[in-house]
Amino acid sequence: MTQQTQWSRKSDFKFSAGPWNLHPGADPFGPPVRAERPFAEKLRVFKEMGFDYVQFHDDDAVPDEFSPADREKRAREVKKLLDDHGLKAEICAPRHWEDARGVDGPVTSNSASDRKWAIERGKRTIDVARVLGTDKFVWWPAREGTYVREAKQAERSFDYMLQFLDTLLDYDKNIRILGEMKPNEPMDLMYLPTTGHFLAMAYKTRDPKRVGVLIETAHAILAGLDPSDEFAYALFHQKLWGVHLNDQNGLKYDQDKAFGSVDLRRAFNQVDVLVRNGYGKNGEVVGLDVKAMRTQPADKSFLHLKHSKEIFLMLVDLATSIDRKAWQGYVDARDYEGLELFIVKNLMGK
Ligand code: GLO
Ligand code: MG
To answer: How far apart are CA 314 and CA 331, in angstroms?
Structure first.
């Protein structure tokens, strides 16, 4: 993908969102402020906005109360609902962080029974993914870290993480694992905080060709990194199999703001690297992971998704029409001041 790839065209980009992106607005300091939409209603909203894919946690499709025996039946019902709405599942991710057994990990938990549960939950997620029709298992290691560093031995935690990956790769020979790395929140410090850390781990697994990444804009920013360079690095490894686009106002909590809403130039660079590397041509999806502001009225609490997609597509237009010769001229002359103004003018439509 890195060298002579054909550039993506607008029609190559297909979009996805998760049901959690249409949410009632609760935050750590206050209750919901909008009614929860029924799942089918969320699918209708996604479709109306021109999305083609849906992101899932295992329990978005099959809630915890379903017994193993009923799991498949329920997953089939959800698949049918997707089919009926003309949508497909993009990813499935294990919800490891809400259960009591996930309090201290669970993959890197100090408790052996928690670690066992982590793997069971991973397998459950793969079972659900299969029925939903996706081979992309996303692992966001939410609580795989510590509040105090002395609580765990880091080198042992890395080993548990590797065992987790290897066990799942063995469990299903078709599944691909996409690490979604984040440096902090909910933990103070997470293990494998960046894409680079996870890619090094990917090559240690028993089937590296089935291990890649999904990169979230906000997570890269929280790590003090430039998201477009993170994308480029994963593309260089041919391992950028998913993205979670959003935006982030500095080093705060994970804000999941609408894509391009904080730093348009940073958003342009993300789009530009995807366009130049043919993203979307091999089934990669433009995933959004954005949240509506808590202040948003219920009947307008989907606009963060709609606008993110709109901004993305406007930036695709720019990336495919910008005067590359003029751009190259500034590079050749080493006139980076000139290049800066050129980019800013383009972003301002001048
Ligand atoms: C949180 C993550 C989270 C994941 C989701 C799918 O910071 O971004 O929303 O993307 O659980 O893995
Ligand atoms: Mg995410």
So the answer is: 24
